[in-house]
Amino acid sequence: MTYDRLVCANCAAPVAEGRCPVCRANRERLQQEGPFAGLNPAALLALLVVLVAALALLAHQTA
């Protein structure tokens, strides 16, 4: 999940603005997650399907 849509429970402002210490801490934590953290499950599933198809095509060409 990306922080641009989150609302802080402490100050009721968007987390992306970083108005309070809680917002700033959560924004830092969310930015430190891996490169696939912002992808939704459907995008991850599509990426997995493409990867499996590419591996199957490679296996078929070498056989």
TrEMBL record:
It comes from the Bacteria. The chain crosses the membrane at residues 39-59. Keywords: Membrane, Transmembrane, Transmembrane helix. This is Uncharacterized protein. It comes from Streptomyces wuyuanensis.
